[in-house]
Design brief:
About 75% of the residues lie in helices and about 0% in strands.
Length: about 210
């Protein structure tokens, strides 16, 4: 009889229950704010280059791409604008992960957050590995390529990877707050698979 009374006191958790706060993991998602800052900082050079300026790009980016900026190639400048806004969108995703949200926003946030984590960390690792192979002499390259790859080894690669770690930690924090963790985690898994596929396809096509 006592057991029955205790059972009756336990509320059912509906599938679309909001997130809970205070599950022992803390209610402040610091990694999410790191992800926000990461996206904003990364968007700045894209917008600068999209205006036709090459500040910071001359030695850190492929000379072919720098030439496109200097020549004011419309298609490439549009890509830079879109890239800048995409990075700001990533910051918005980080902000969504910063605190518990409603079910729909939460599913969208963990889907995008997990996808960004895998995509950024994957690209970062590839940049670092490629640069390390050339730097160590395991792979030979032209002098100008070697200099460029050092930037990918010491700057772009680590920056991409750091972004991936931030989004990954932010997404995991959010999942730990979920009342229906198993259900919302499925969206994160799909996002992670999507991010991995983008890394694979871009690498195979030579665009990564």
């Amino acid at each position: 009889m006592v057991a029955a009374e205790h059972t009756a006191d336990v509320p059912d958790v509906p599938p679309d229950a909001p997130l809970r706060t205070g599950t022992g993991t803390g209610t402040r998602n610091r990694a999410a704010w790191v992800a926000v800052a990461w996206g904003v900082l990364f968007a700045v050079p894209s917008f600068i280059w999209a205006t036709g300026h090459t500040a910071g790009a001359t030695s850190t980016v492929s000379p072919t791409l720098v030439a496109k900026v200097r020549d004011g190639e419309t298609g490439f400048l549009v890509v830079l604008w879109l890239s800048g806004f995409l990075k700001l969108f990533a910051s918005a995703v980080g902000a969504m992960l910063a605190r518990p949200r409603g079910p729909r926003t939460g599913r969208f946030a963990v889907f995008c957050g997990a996808g960004a984590a895998v995509l950024l960390a994957g690209h970062g690792l590839l940049f670092v590995i490629g640069g390390a192979l050339v730097e160590s002499g395991a792979v030979h390259g032209k002098p100008d390529v070697v200099v460029l790859l050092r930037w990918y080894l010491y700057l772009w690669g680590p920056y991409f990877f750091a972004g991936g770690v931030a989004f990954g930690m932010a997404t995991l924090w959010y999942l730990r707050q979920a009342a229906d963790r198993a259900r919302i985690a499925r969206y994160a898994k799909v996002g992670a698979v999507g991010g991995a596929l983008v890394v694979l396809l871009s690498t195979l096509s030579g665009l990564g």
